[in-house]
Design a protein that fits this description.
The complex is a heterodimer of chains A (about 500) and B (about 150). Chain A has about 500 residues and is an alpha+beta fold. Chain A is about 75% helix and about 10% strand. Chain A has a 5-stranded mixed beta sheet with strand order 2-4-5-7-6, covered by helices on one side. Chain A is rod-shaped. The relative contact order of chain A is 0.06. By secondary structure, chain B is of the alpha/beta class. The chains are: A alpha+beta (about 500), B alpha/beta (about 150).
């Protein structure tokens, strides 16, 4: 049965709450049971005390009677001793019994009745004893013979025995109660335990179901991931292939374009050497005198050297272009080395290396501090900003000294935005994209160069994970905006993680 | 460049005939008069070096110096270098790689495979001519062992 997170939480919490409730109920029940057991035990103890007090009292009363009888029979005063001792003991024994009697009306009635009987017995026995002491044995005997004492004594005995029977009954009831409580307690404990185990099983079941679901979900995710990884690997391999192809292309270009170039240059030189061999002929009168002479001399002295110089200039230019292509393709192969780069120091360094030309033109390079430290490839950054500053100086306005202004804004989302603003001659809007193309240049072509600077800069910025754009107005100046990740290493890690 | 009176032959494997001619001229200018046997592709060069049976017997007891371009129309110069350096008859013949590539890995690979000298052809002709003349001077003083 599929369960969601919420369901799992509900199930687990429900079962746990149930367990806690059961535990609480068990504790309450146990407490109640214990309380019951305690009161039963107290009742048992009280019953015991009462019973022994009753027995003690009866024994003392009987002692008194025995003493009375002995004295009446013998007239010996030593028999009086137990009688009197018993008589003095009766009060404390009765007091003790009173303290042991359970509270309530029946007890009060019982005590009153017993007290009356005891008083009657005491009166009778004291009377007889006194008569005997006075020597009136017959009278004393007559009192005894009235059976008044015996009857009272029998009543006392019956009363006490009945009370003892009552106490015994209460005692056994208490013991039964206790036993019952213990049984209840045992049963509730067992039942509660079972219920807790069931609640635990419920939690375990919910967890198990959820875990199984998690495992299933995870394996599904893994399967998806594996598919994704395979796809990413495929793409990466495609890209790698494309990249390799470009590298091979650059290699082929470098070789196959250079090889014929060497020939062109080589044989141009050979031609020049041969031309030098012809040199003496230009002053030879015989040659000058011949019909084709002047034309031949002109060819040797001006036409061919001119052709050679054009060929040389062109090959030199072509060589430069090939080198530019090679440089770009090599730059793509260089491994970037992200490190902490203080952009401020970097700009200062660029300003220092441009200082000569700045002084020459009366210009200045302003760095707007503060400038942050970023993690990137130092060499690439130097090339990017060196090139931009170089361009700003190269394409300065002839009307004013160049002012280059470098500022950095720290974007909050992990990027830095760098502006390089100049007051140069500017770039026409139609050329905003074109200037970044290889071998393309904008404006008046009055400066040396192959048109690879900005193409190179853009390739570098892209390699650093950033982008470059420009805003410009002809005759006013140009602002290049370079957006770079603040931490190239993180960015590389992210992309390599994505690559899996 | 002679050992025991036997002439050393320079085997030049260079697909660009213009280059071959320029190399030959500049070597001659350095005063090297040894026979130069040019090949414009790898197959012909290998057939010459190893014979029709590809055993290399034909090159036994010869003194050969091989000038090798890496970019050939039918095979790579690296393959040729590998064959020369692994054949018992030709392995001691000096091989001079003379090519346009200045790729570091390529250079390392050539030396790993046993190339004796690696020279990048300068694009500028004056430097090219100068380098070849230097190479010619080098040829005139170097000792070439006899093949087995």
């Amino acid at each position: 049965m599929p369960i969601s997170n919420v369901n799992l939480m509900r199930a687990t919490a429900g079962f746990s709450a149930l367990g806690v409730l059961i535990l609480l109920a068990m504790v309450a029940l146990s407490f109640w049971m214990l309380e019951r057991t305690r009161s039963s035990t107290e009742a048992v103890l009280a019953s015991r005390g009462e019973r022994s007090a009753l027995v003690d009292l009866l024994s003392v009363i009987q002692d008194a009677e025995t003493g009375q009888r002995g004295y009446l029979l013998t007239g010996e005063p030593r028999y009086l001793e137990p009688f009197e001792a018993a008589n003095t003991n009766i009060e404390p024994a009765f007091a003790k019994l009173l303290s042991k009697l359970p509270p309530g009306e029946p007890s009060k009635a019982f005590a009153k009745k017993l007290k009356a009987l005891m008083d009657a017995k005491l009166a009778e026995s004291t009377e007889t004893v006194n008569l005997r002491r006075e020597g009136k044995s017959d009278e004393a005997l007559a009192v005894v013979l009235t059976d008044r004492g015996k009857k009272v004594m029998d009543d006392i005995r019956t009363l006490i025995h009945d009370e003892i029977a009552e106490v015994e009954k209460r005692f056994s009831t208490s013991v039964d109660d206790q036993r019952e409580s213990a049984a209840y307690l045992r049963m509730t404990t067992i039942a509660g335990g079972l219920m807790i185990v069931m609640a635990g099983l419920g939690v375990a079941w919910a967890m198990r179901t959820y875990t199984r679901e998690l495992v299933e979900a995870r394996s599904e995710v893994q399967a998806l991931n594996a598919g994704l990884e395979a796809r990413v690997k495929e793409r990466t391999a495609d890209l790698q292939r494309a990249n390799d192809e470009i590298q091979r292309f650059a290699y082929i270009v470098s070789h196959d374009l250079r090889a014929p170039l060497v020939n062109v240059m080589g044989f141009t030189s050979e031609m020049q050497t041969s031309l030098e061999a012809l040199e003496p002929l230009t002053t030879d009168p015989a040659v000058l005198a011949s019909p084709a002479g002047p034309a031949a001399v002109a060819a040797i002295t001006t036409d061919v050297p001119e052709a050679i110089s054009f060929i040389r200039a062109s090959t030199r230019k072509m060589d430069g272009l090939i080198n530019a292509i090679l440089k770009l393709s090599r730059e793509g192969q260089r491994t970037l080395n992200p490190e902490a780069v203080d952009l401020g120091a970097l700009f200062e360094g660029i300003a220092a290396s441009a200082q000569h030309r700045l002084t020459e033109t009366g210009g200045e390079l302003k760095i707007n501090h503060p400038v942050p430290v970023i993690t990137s490839d130092r060499l690439a950054l130097e090339q990017i900003f060196g090139n931009l500053v170089d361009n700003a100086l190269k394409y300065r306005s002839p009307a004013r000294p160049p002012v280059i202004d470098v500022s950095v804004q720290n974007d909050r989302s992990g990027w830095v935005v760098i502006h390089v603003r100049d007051n140069g001659r500017g770039i026409g809007e139609e050329d905003f994209e074109r200037v970044f193309d290889l071998f393309r240049r904008a404006g008046v072509q009055n400066q040396p160069g192959e048109g690879i600077g900005l193409a190179h800069v853009r390739a570098l910025v892209r390699r650093l994970g950033g982008q470059i754009s420009l805003k410009s107005e002809l005759g006013t100046g140009t602002t290049f905006q370079v957006i770079l990740p603040r931490n190239l290493r993180e960015k590389q890690e992210q992309s390599s993680e994505r690559r899996g | 460049m002679n050992v025991e009176g036997k002439p050393v032959a320079i085997i030049m494997i260079e697909d660009d005939e213009g280059h071959a001619r320029l190399i030959e001229r500049n070597i001659r200018r350095a005063g090297v008069n040894n026979e130069i046997i040019p090949f414009t592709n790898g197959t012909d060069a290998l057939n010459y070096l190893f014979g029709p049976d590809q055993s290399g017997e034909v090159s036994a007891k010869k003194q050969l110096l091989i000038l090798l371009d890496l970019n050939l129309p039918d095979m790579t110069g690296i393959g040729i270098l590998e064959k020369i350096k692994s054949n018992v008859h030709t392995k001691r013949s000096p091989v001079i790689v003379l090519t346009t590539t200045d790729d570091t890995r390529e250079i390392q690979r050539c030396y790993d495979l046993g190339a004796n000298v690696y020279i990048t052809k300068p694009v500028d002709y004056d430097n090219f001519a100068h380098a070849i003349r230097q190479l010619g001077l080098f040829f005139s003083v170097m000792k070439v062992p006899e093949t087995q």
